[in-house]
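Human: I'm a chemist; would you kindly supply sequence and structure tokens for a protein?

Assistant:
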Amino acid sequence: MTEGVFGRDGGHEQVVYCQDPQTGLKAIIAVHSTALGPALGGVRFYPYESERDALDDVLALSMGMSYKSALAGLDLGGGKAVIIGDPDTLKSEPLLRAYGRFVDSLGGRYITACDVGTYVADMDMIARETTFVTGRSSDDGGSGDPSGMTAYGVFQGMRAAAEHRWGSPDLRGKRVGVSGVGKVGRLLVDHLVEAGAEVVVTDVSEAAIDRVRAAHPSVRVVADTAELVSCDLDVYAPCALGGALDDATVAALRAEIVCGSANNQLAHSGVEKLLDERGILYAPDYLVNSGGLIQVSDELHGFNYERARRKVSGLFDMTKKVFALAEEEGVPPATAADRLAERRMAEVSRLRMIR
């Protein structure tokens, strides 16, 4: 990922355009790799400005899922889907079921799940047309919303980063800035407040901010991400959309650690080196935010909450392993994570050639 081309020339196995004019469905499904197993990844429902933007997003996200599954130790590949449009006005039962028919037509090469703009109830609806769906409600045989497990995994990764940087995983008294307090960020704030951290947040949604304020009056709110980044932080947690770490943000950043739930945080290849040069410890996004993937993948074996939580707790040790390899090989943590993921994909896919 950080060492290769990320996106259009990422070696994707299959890209499928899905269109149903009667329901308004315009979707793209991207299967990046099935080297470790069927490609699992969420469906993002978002009002992209152009089809090109949607394509770029789904290609990048699906590639990230391959690395995420590999590093999480799952026998799954990487895939993603996007539905183009405003979910508040376009989403309907017929549209979701039409999307489910397209997923089903891939015969299990791609398994869908929740992402930005889609929820557990949507997965239950999609499941009326295909069995290749996870993140369903407990009433429908699923594990429910994976946001809580994603937040827990990010929290474990942050604890591991704190131990690597400061010698202790204790976040008490540390100032953590969370950009984006929607599905996952809000739940991450819960963990941080409980751990005794001093939390500063920002979000474009006033409703999201109001929910955090109601639950945690001690949390400080700033106007925007630019103001948050310039704060005197110990940890910066990007928890909104991708591309949060660009050259300007890294130059302005005052935190010693970056660890958040957003996908594809590095705006371009080379940002990981800028972070490293500034002495900022970066916990690779697709590693620490894999808790939700671990939860929904557990549905494929008959969901067990305690088993899934134990697996997510293991992200603490895996994050430490990535930091140790980075130091050993003299590379940024993002590069070390890529190498571990690529090694597993290569080794396991080779074993599958044995008959």
Summary: The first helix runs from residue 51 to 71. Residues 14-65+76-140 form a domain with the Rossmann fold fold (CATH 3.40.50.10860). The first strand starts at residue 14 and ends at 20.
